[in-house]
Protein: 3-oxo-5alpha-steroid 4-dehydrogenase (NADP(+))
Organism: Onchocerca ochengi
Amino acid sequence: MDTMIEMLSYSMLVSGIIVFLILTFGFEAPYGRYFQKSHPSIPLISAKWAWFIQEIPSLCIPLHYLITGFIDLPLINTFILILFILHYINRALIYPFLIKGDTKTPLHIFLLSLLFCIVNGYVQGIWHSYNAVYNKSLKDIVFCLFGSGMMINITSDSILRNLRKDGKSGYKIPYGGLFKYISGANFFGECVEWTGYALLAHTLPAFAFAFFTLCNLAPRAYHHHRWYQEKFDNYPQDRKAFIPFVI
């Protein structure tokens, strides 16, 4: 079992590098504002239902391991699983049904995301249900990292949704929160969140997930930044792409 989980974790690390290279030097992932760039023959599905279905395994699988092993789980394992589950309660049960408009997602993007969430939910759930190295020396710092990252992610998503509260489907320049400093505030928040999770768990699966998330979201933040600059002449010139004041 340990060998299989380690292999899946290393596969996630390798996949992260491949995804980063493709997204950085190849193309923009064709969902969200870029879904028009997908091939016309590729079926499209509702983004709302795509998000719900693809994310639900990352909620249900770890929740299963938490519930079935709750009595025997060490406190730190329980805590790590709860943090993971909290994120996916929002991502699977709340976020999808707050999406405004009839946005679409290409079927192949949905299927790849679903596969990743099944594998990652299994890896994080089963590993942390019995194996975790508690990083006690950093517990306060990393918990603050996770909490602040989750808050940044949720508030940034809310800011983006409110840009469409008048019912219009077009895009606008986001303001407020970390959008004052970066174009990808929601992506930055999620990366901070999973960095805190990885530092707290101090395990290979947690690190692999945080690394893959960074490799996937950092290029997307750059694509968003470039898109805003090309679309809006009045886009703030001092706003960075992904890390405040840096890049």
Notes: Helices lie at 2-25, 47-68, 75-94, 107-128, 139-162, 185-201, 204-231.
